[in-house]
TrEMBL record, chain A:
Lineage: Bacteria, Pseudomonadati, Pseudomonadota, Alphaproteobacteria, Rhodobacterales
SUPFAM superfamilies to which the protein is assigned, alphabetical: CheW-like
Chain ranges passing through the membrane: none
PROSITE patterns, sorted: CHEW (PS50851)
Protein name per Swiss-Prot or TrEMBL: Purine-binding chemotaxis protein CheW
TrEMBL record, chain B:
Keywords annotated in UniProt: Phosphoprotein
Entry keyword Phosphoprotein: yes
UniProt keyword Phosphoprotein, yes or no: yes
Modified residues (4-aspartylphosphate): D53
Name the UniProt record assigns to this protein: Two-component system, chemotaxis family, response regulator CheY
Any Gene Ontology biological process: phosphorelay signal transduction system
Alphabetized SMART domains for the sequence: REC
The organism of origin for this protein: Tropicimonas sediminicola
SUPFAM superfamilies with a match to the protein in the record: CheY-like (SSF52172)
From TrEMBL, chain C:
One function term, GO molecular function aspect: ATP binding
Task performed by this protein: Involved in the transmission of sensory signals from the chemoreceptors to the flagellar motors. CheA is autophosphorylated; it can transfer its phosphate group to either CheB or CheY.
Native source organism of the sequence: Tropicimonas sediminicola
Origin superkingdom: Bacteria
Catalytic activity: ATP + protein L-histidine = ADP + protein N-phospho-L-histidine
PROSITE patterns referenced in this protein's UniProt entry, alphabetically: CHEW (PS50851), HIS_KIN (PS50109), HPT (PS50894)
GO biological process: chemotaxis
Residue positions, PTM Phosphohistidine: H50
Record lineage: Bacteria, Pseudomonadati, Pseudomonadota, Alphaproteobacteria, Rhodobacterales
Keyword annotations: ATP-binding, Chemotaxis, Kinase, Nucleotide-binding, Phosphoprotein, Transferase, Two-component regulatory system
Protein name: Chemotaxis protein CheA
Alphabetized Gene3D superfamilies for the sequence: Histidine kinase CheA-like, homodimeric domain, Histidine kinase-like ATPase, C-terminal domain, HPT domain, SH3 Domains
Enzyme class: transferase
GO CC term (a single one): cytoplasm
Residue stretches making up the Histidine kinase domain: 379-582
Amino acid sequence: MTDVAATAVEATERELLSFRVGGQEYCVDIMSVREIRGWTRPTPVPGSPHWVRGVINLRGTVLPIVDLARRLGISAEDASDRNVIIVVHLGQQTVGLLVDAVSDILSIAENDMRPPPDIASREGETFIKALTVVEERMLRVLELASLLPDTGREAA
Amino acid sequence: MSLRVLAVDDSRTIRDMLKLALTQAGFVPSLAEDGLHGLEVLGEMAPDAIITDINMPRMDGFGFIEAVRRLDGHRATPILVLTTESAPEMKARARSAGATGWIVKPFDPVKLVRALNMVAGPGGAQ
Amino acid sequence: MTTPDPMAEIRASFFVECEELMEALQDGLTMLDGGDADDETVNICFRAVHSMKGGAGAFGLDDLVRFSHRYETVLDEVRAGRLEPGHDVVLLFMRAADILSDIVHYSRDGLPVDPDKVEPTLRELEALISDEAEEEEAEVTDFQPMTLALPFGGPPADRVVRIRFAPEPDLFTSGNEPVHLLRALAALGEMQITPDLSEVPTLDALDPEAACLAWEIVLTTNRDRAEIEETFEFVEGLCKLSICEEQSGLSLPCLPGLPPLAMPPAPDAGVSPSAEVRPRLTLTAPPDCSDPEEGTPPPDTAKTHAPQPAPATPIAVESPVATAARPATTPPKATVRVDLDRIERLVNLVGELVINQAMLSQSVAQAGLPTNSPVVQGLEDFMQLTRDIQDSVMMIRAQPVKSLFQRLARIVRDTSAAVGKPVRFVTRGEATEVDKTVIERLADPLTHMIRNAVDHGLERPEARLAAGKPSEGCITLSAAHRSGRVVIEVMDDGGGIDRPRVQAIAEERGLIDPGQAMTDAEIDALLFMPGFSTVKQVSNLSGRGVGMDVVRKSIQDLGGRVSISSSPGKGTCFSISLPLTLAVLDGMVVDVAGEALVVPIGAIAETMAYREQDIRSVGPRTRVLHIRDSFVPLLDLGVELGFRPAKESNAGSVVLLVANEGETLGALIVDAIHEQRQVVIKGLQQGYGNAPGIAAATILGDGQVALILDPVDMMAKAGTRPGQTQPALAPTG
């Protein structure tokens, strides 16, 4: 998920968008973020995984919404209009990630990113690419590819 | 002074290539898709030289050349025939129809320009 | 260079042109075979191959050049009337066209051509004109750029070449012009030129169209003789020409009594820097006859002389090749080539327009304006316009199925040859227009169906004869518009489906219970079951282990349906019914557990109120609807989609009768019907839901996404899902 252009300019700095999900802080590479939207009620899709909330209309495109709290295995109450949708783009897929709130945009040096500890005690941890500490808060950097279903990427 | 060249060929590819080669060499090309179309275009412009294919629908190259030679203003307009065969009979045939010269396809743009210079003068110059 | 390579663009456009030429060729060959061909038909075929050869030469596509040249040579024989295009010859031409098409594709993709596939056909083609002379000629005139180069050791040094050039009258009538020739010659080196005026008569005796000038040229050049000769290539035989080379680099004296003249250099040539005097040649060469263009003879002279220099040989007119002034039979319509991306964009934008219009309508309706208000009236006009624009845009993408049918004709030929069953292939409705995307996605399933028809549908020639049929089987492929859909049929006149055998195989594979009583239609439908294949070993023809279930799946993905009809001894017909376009759909918007859903109108036979007395329970959670003396499965859509648990009572609901090709498949319970309207189909990304019968979505007037249901698919799958309670009488087709 490293952006070539960005790393070329700033070899060691990465820009991340951080947000809160179920009381924990996560972040994704800002290069994959397309936009941030307010809550819209999704249309449920039968037969979808439990962490897919359904689909919404994003200016004419049918956008699937991934409930990040459910995806990461964090119990969270039902979504409401206090929630926010981060629209991310990965390969040919565009997906909305349902989160509690967006916090910040951070510049993190590559050196400050640690690989996650090699314990898969909880489901959520397999989605984490790296850990970093900012102002004594631990941030989990998400691996987007592992969050989204495989088929979509190949189908494009 | 740029020479105006009328190029007649039923193949879009060849027309595109002629247009490219002629434009790059500084000629001003006009294009037509077959003999009849060529005569129509000829009614609207007076080319300094004409390039024509032989095998074309509606009116083939021989018919076209003969028709051009019957026009008062074009008795001596240089006409080059595009031919895929270099057989002497083909050349004799082209000449007897009134062609000035011939270009063997696939044409080399350099040779095309040289052939045009030989029959129409150095009009491609800028 | 940031600009795109123009040659690469022309190359790409060449391959597009090749497809058009292949189509023209195949059309021509079909006409030839049908016997309703005239001379021009042969000409069209010849020109198609000839044009491919011409373009291929320009891009150095040697395989393509070679094959098209041989092919063209044989077609030329037909054109010249020396070869009769009988049935067998035309069949060979068709096979050659198939190979030519392959070579075009290989050439386009830069792949090598397998000689084993090409050579046998080439040899067969050449055998048609096996006269020694022809074969020899084919070799001699093999399509190669002419090379005139004569052997000269090493790069030639500067040397002196003496040339005498005396034009004859024909040189001028051929449109050649000595001035240009001499100028081109001057570009080869340093040139001194002397006009020989000895033949010029006095003015009163001067024939303005006679040639009386000659030139002596001394050229100092390092170019080889071939290049010098090439300059005079066009006037060979139209002049007296002598070229003598001298060993020394010394310049030789010119003719006595005449000053040497320097050639006026070409404005751009940059040669002849030594030219101190730069007179225009036309000024120094006395008689005007050297330059018919500039020195125009008096008009009346021109008239009197006009017939005389007219084209030297009138024979050409009688030639069969000269089709001068032949009236065009069908003048081509003016067309514009447009990048497909642009059309896609337009289609998407129109889709947005439709959605926006729907949103606007909804807002206006909610505003409660009177129906006679200008806003409401204007909106109605706007809706009509939107619909017209949409139809027009969809028409841009519509294409006749002809090209697809031509590709399939080839599949028939290939399969026919491979299994040794002679086949007559008949197509109908080639002009039927279907959305381009639909056509593209039909190619695979139809290919499979056609192969099946030849491989399994038709009997062997002996069996056919024994059954009193012609030994040649017949496959008919037809397309037609029928009530807003396209119906494509693949029909064979073979033995029909062997139903006892099909049933036996299905039992063997455990697809049905042994001894189960089944109707003909139910047995036929077994062919579409996953895991069913009547082929004993996986044939290389019927395609990589692909079964009819895959065919049905791909047709369904297009919003289409397949059905079979077959009668023993007479043949089988597979019928595909498709929407005209993948982009829009006439749908019924229904409410299910508070969610809006769209059901295609085409799949709904009837709507009715839910009546408890028409419902029978067959199992704990299985119900059927009693309608007109028959029972059809009844599904509660809200439960099926997992939107809500089963209700105590469905009173007040609405029942939709689902039908496919006139056959009622089942009934669906929905909570309410909102409206009927046209919707724009939006794809669903894969991996976010996999409900049977749901493959697409749309955006409604309120901006919400609504799923589009495929009720036929849903009814078909309802019985096969685990945990579902469907009666065994659910049809499989």
